[in-house]
Amino acid sequence: MIDKGERRMADSQYVLEARGVIKIFGSQTALDSVDFGLRRGEVHALLGENGAGKSTLIKILTGAYQPDGGQVLVDGAPVTLDNPLHAQTHGIGTVYQEVNLLPNRSVAENLYLGHQPTRFGLVDHRKMERDARVLLTRYGLDLDPGSELGSHSVAVQQIVAIARAVELSGKVLILDEPTASLDRNEVERLFEVIGDLKRAGLAIIFITHFLDQVFAISDRVTVLRNGRLVETQVLDALSRTDVVRLMLGKDIAFSGATDLEPENPTTDVLLQFSGYGRKNGVAPFDLTIHKGEVIGVAGLLGSGRTEMARIMFGADPADQGSLRVNDKPANVRNTTDAITLGFGFCPEDRKAEGILGDLSVRENIIIALQGKLGWFKALNRDEQLEIAGRFGESMDIRAASLDMPVKLLSGGNQQKVILSRWLATDPAFLILDEPTRGIDVGAHAEIVRTINRLRDDGMAMVVISSELDEVVAYSSRIVVMRDRKMVAELRGKNINPGVIVQAIANNPDEATP
Amino acid sequence: MKRSLRPLAATAVIFIIAYGLAVLQFPNMLSTRVLGNFLTDNAFLGIAAVGMTFVIISGGIDLSVGAVIGFTGVLIAVLTSWLGIHPLVAFAIALGVAALFGAAMGFTIHFLQVPSFIVTLAGMFLARGGASIITQDSVPIKHEFYATLGDLMIRLPGGGKLSFIGMLMILIFLGGALLAHRTKFGSYVYALGGNSVSASLMGVPVARTTVQIYMLSSTLAALAGIVFSLYTSAGYPLAAVGVELDAISAVVIGGTLLTGGYGFVLGTFVGVMLLGLVQTYIIFDGTLSSWWTKIVIGVLLFLFIVLQRVIFAASAPGEKSPEKV
């Protein structure tokens, strides 16, 4: 008994702890015995690329998921967190990226919903608003608690969300990308609030894609990659380059440089983006793409990679700058314009934005071509089968039948179906957003081979990928994105993943580390 | 003024102007007699509309209201006239049946994730069909208790009468307003209408609240059915056809946002009164076809939906605005 008590004392340096936590979804291991410890009065940044397991870990710590192995401990004692509300009673509060409050209700009600003070069984609005005013003053907000939450800025709403979370839980605050939709001043204001809470002894987990912000307020950092813990470290001991390297992984060597594909100045210019950009999307960029050229796009998640692709394809049309296609001015106001110009786009989120799961392989392949042809030139079944069959073969799509629903295929084969869809339209320019994510090694190699083949056939491509080795392997040039800006364009010889990491991490505000 | 108050203010202003104009033309319309009848004639609609207000604020819709009124009337008529049960007992049975019925609808909506539109449409057919199975004909209710309740009234100065059912409606409106604005249940209803995902993350008992909302609506519809049977002294399976649509109109005209999250129970009262005023005016005029009522209601409804769009879409930072096309 005494022994147990002592252990508890020793353990309780952590307010919240995950020990060897495992989470499995189907055949995928989302978290593979991850350890994580959070101390009182610290801001602990949790970093990792998409699929690293950050959100799974957070969901386990907030009770939204149950671990398949390992333990969650609060103050050194193992707990089972049934759901986020239950976690709240253990002192764990969460503020999400999208403010999860009620814009249609008053600020005071948002602070106290479910816990409103009552008098004779009725909600005591006057007391609630009085309490709210006192509470808000502590967060430096001077506003009418009776006013509608939706009438305030996102930053204020974010602070109200934090106030609610702290008020109702009070031990651990989890901030899940709280700054994603805030401007610079608002971020600073939020950081002041976070600083105050930290000094008051609150333990804070901070999740963000912005490295600057990690360095601005965090004490320690934990990096996850592919569901595993890479490192937990005091931030002072790390440089920006270290952090990026930990996130992207592979013990990126600074040796073993590869030469990029030589640029071929004799080929024609296909696309010229100049000053191309979109407010709240990507800062204006200049980019010239030749026929038979692959432009690799590197950058961390949230750096503006996908936004750039969507702007190019007209999914979020540009609102500034100009585009010339084949040296003629062109306008991409929507995706139909883009398809007419011969553009194709394989989005990052295959399930949500790429495949039409319930339709057959054949239908998925011909749909973009049909869209290009228009309503009145319907492809008959034989034509459809011919086209689908041709691509099925050339892309080596492994499906029992071309008429089976595409959702039954493996990820790699789904990706090939989407590639086929665009290849069927005979595009001049293809944008691939993370074409190799979540597919097996064999299919991975095939996709890379296909990219190489298409480039040699003279197609222009933009390929976004977190796999730096891969980017180096097929790119003619590499564009580096950071903070929604194109910050570098790498070309020529001696390019290796290390150089890219350096370019991603480089902070223009500070000297090279 | 708060954004959410504006549609209600508009309704109130329109009501006052319309009433003023009507009085200018027919000075009799100002009499307490007309006002008393106003309340009596619209009592069942008003009571049903209170329940509908909660449903719509929560972001749902209840199409079964009219059918529940019809079913309740038949049930009470059959219980009292054929089986000789005391009306009070029949009332209790009817309210209990309706509460279960509403709970079942709320349960389906929440746990099976079926849109309220479909579930309550099914509920409408069930209740209407059920009423018609019991009897195809109008069943008169002759019971001294009905006569007693019919005689229960407050005489107003000027020859008007405030009937029992008129008073009941006012009580239900006051109770509804208290429930909406001063209880946790009320705040949960608004929370569901604002954003049900946020609401559940904030700890709102979504399942319980949804079931309670539809229970409330069906129970109030049954109460409206009781009032309707007092008003007509009969039960008829095809009574109150389309009343759910009148109730929805009254709620929307009264300033409740059809997409949920905003609204006032007392606004619905003004909405019901405005609908009543249109009807009374057309009766006073005598030359107009009664279908003009529908046309005027249609125009008003259209006006208010446009008004809400303008108020809620135009001036809303960080707020759910209509999707850009």
How would you characterize this protein structure?
- The complex is a heterodimer of chains A (513) and B (325).
- Chain A is α/β, with parallel strands linked by helices.
- Chain A has three domains: 194 residues, 3-Layer(aba) Sandwich (Rossmann fold); 175 residues, P-loop containing nucleotide triphosphate hydrolases (Rossmann fold); 77 residues, no CATH class.
- Chain A has a six-stranded mixed β-sheet with strand order 6-9-10-3-11-12, with helices on both faces.
- In chain A, a hairpin with a 2-residue loop joins β1 and β2.
- In chain A, α9 crosses α18 and α14 packs across α15.
- The N terminus and C terminus of chain A are likely disordered.
- Chain B has 325 residues and is mainly α.
- Chain B has a single domain, classed as ABC transporter involved in vitamin B12 uptake, BtuC (Orthogonal Bundle), CATH 1.10.3470.
- In chain B, α2 packs antiparallel against α10, α3 packs parallel to α5 and α3 packs across α10.
- The longest helix of chain B has 27 residues.
- The C terminus of chain B is likely disordered.
- Classes of the chains: A alpha/beta (513), B mainly alpha (325).
- Chains A and B meet through α3, β8 and α6 of A and α8 and α9 of B.
Question: Can you count the beta strands of chain A?
Answer: 22
User: Distance N terminus to C terminus of chain B?
Assistant: 30 Å
Category from helices, strands and their pairing of chain B: mainly alpha
Quaternary organization:
heterodimer
The CATH topology name of the largest domain in chain A reads Rossmann fold
Helix content of chain A: 25-40%
Helix content of chain B: over 70%
CATH topology of chain B: ABC transporter involved in vitamin B12 uptake, BtuC
Write down the overall mean pLDDT of chain B: 89
CATH architecture of chain B: Orthogonal Bundle
CATH C-level of the largest domain in chain A = Alpha Beta
Instruction: Report the sheet with the most strands of chain B, covering strand number, pairing sense and barrel closure.
Output: 2 strands, antiparallel
* Structural class by sheet pairing and helices of chain A: alpha/beta
Beta-strand segment tally of chain B: 4
CATH class category name of chain B: Mainly Alpha
